[in-house]
Description:
Distance between the termini: 17 Å
Largest sheet: 7 strands, mixed
Oligomer: single chain
Shape: globular
Strand order of the largest sheet: 2-1-12-6-7-9-3
Number of strands: 14
Radius of gyration: 16 Å
Amino acid sequence: MALPIERPQKIVCVGLNYRDHAEEQGTELPSAPLLFAKWPNALIGPGEPIVIPPVTQKVDYEAELGVVIGKRVRGVSAENALEAVRGYICVNDVSARDLQFSDGQWVRGKSLDTFCPVGPEVVPADEVPDPQALSIRAIVNGEVLQDSSTANMIFSVAEIVAHVSAAITSEPGDLIATGTPAGVGVFREPQVLLQPGDEVTIEIEQIGALTNPVRAEGEE
């Protein structure tokens, strides 16, 4: 399917933004949103394959609520931040864990081609009364591996939008991925990492379900 959003100027992501995800790593809760970038070359739409290249052997899924910015903002307050939101979308922050951890920073491991599925569509903000009250799940081959709620976010959508805009001008179409809950594959015992032939669904209440197959580079 076609990409359900216009290609954004920026994809801004938040790390360690769910209490349960920090707990599963044994990590202290951050005092402010931890931002990193994911490049737009990673974007794909519903049904398009997540392609695993030879450079990585540890590919993980991450269910995330995506926020699409609707107007140019800089220095917006948390109280007014949701006025800048056009809508919401499911995001799979696919991650090459071996690259992420070996590099010491996250951009390369997060930005491989096809490593940012989004969809199925942008749900207008006025149709989502409370973005902090949505169930969020990741399902791999029919098995629910992440099952949480956006109520478990450490920093709310409004706080994140305000924090980003305090330093970086947000433009219409920019995408913010707001973090993932517990249950990612790399911290499971045993680990559950994506393999060619898998199918991954990110499901968020009121937003929809985003499904993508997984294949190896070079496979048809």
